[in-house]
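Quick review question:
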């Protein structure tokens, strides 16, 4: 029996959350070993298991993988969530890079100083509604399929749903001008593996709170 992937990161979203999403959507059970203090991270570094001295790190298929993008690409390829050919893969990559940019802005918001938070929140909402979400709305409209690429569930869809839910935490009605994305959210949320991940008690992490922010600052 193959060992479950083991995820090494803090007990919060950060750069690991998209990896948790992708594994969960693929129906893959995984274990987590949380970094709770600076010494935990130093031990991983001194053990030589972090290629660039950074986490996330995922133990999978005999590898100790680092670099979020590399980990996600490997999981997407392994579990048939990365398109059927190079062209589809290119589209998935483009869509994923877009949602990654948006999620990066949201991810760093809680760590920012109070005087810049309001301005940055307004920027997130502006970018989501004018730069990112119109692209996905148009993609769904133009090809008339349920999914972004190749009429089959892919990493791009899973990533987009994660981004939508993060954006709704910033502004609950952020999808009000995007009916196709509203329908997409409902469809993808109801895929059994994803539905399970969205239930209370799953390995999905909540938004960063003050306690988590304090822990992160101490570790990194």
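Suggested answer, residue by residue:
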């Amino acid at each position: 029996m193959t060992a479950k992937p083991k995820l090494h990161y803090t007990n919060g979203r950060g750069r690991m959350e998209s990896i948790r999403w992708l594994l969960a959507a693929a129906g893959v059970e995984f274990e987590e070993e949380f970094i709770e203090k600076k010494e935990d991270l130093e031990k991983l570094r001194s053990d030589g298991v972090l290629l660039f001295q950074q986490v996330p790190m995922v133990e999978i298929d005999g590898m100790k993988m680092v670099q979020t993008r590399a980990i996600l690409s490997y999981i997407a390829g392994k579990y048939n969530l990365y398109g059927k050919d190079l062209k589809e893969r290119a589209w998935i990559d483009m869509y994923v890079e877009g949602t990654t940019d948006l999620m990066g802005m949201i991810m760093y918001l809680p760590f920012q100083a109070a005087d810049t938070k309001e301005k940055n929140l307004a920027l997130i909402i502006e970018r989501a509604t004018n730069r990112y979400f119109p692209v996905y709305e148009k993609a769904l409209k133009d090809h008339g399929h349920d999914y972004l690429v190749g009429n089959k569930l892919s990493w791009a869809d899973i990533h987009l749903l994660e981004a939508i839910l993060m954006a709704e935490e910033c502004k609950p009605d952020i999808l009000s001008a995007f009916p196709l994305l509203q329908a997409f959210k409902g469809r993808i949320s109801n895929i059994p593996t994803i539905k399970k991940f969205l239930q209370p008690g799953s390995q999905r992490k909540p938004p960063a709170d003050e306690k988590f922010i304090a822990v992160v600052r101490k570790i990194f």
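Why it works: The chain has two domains: 6-79+198-210, 86-190. The chain has a mean pLDDT of 95.
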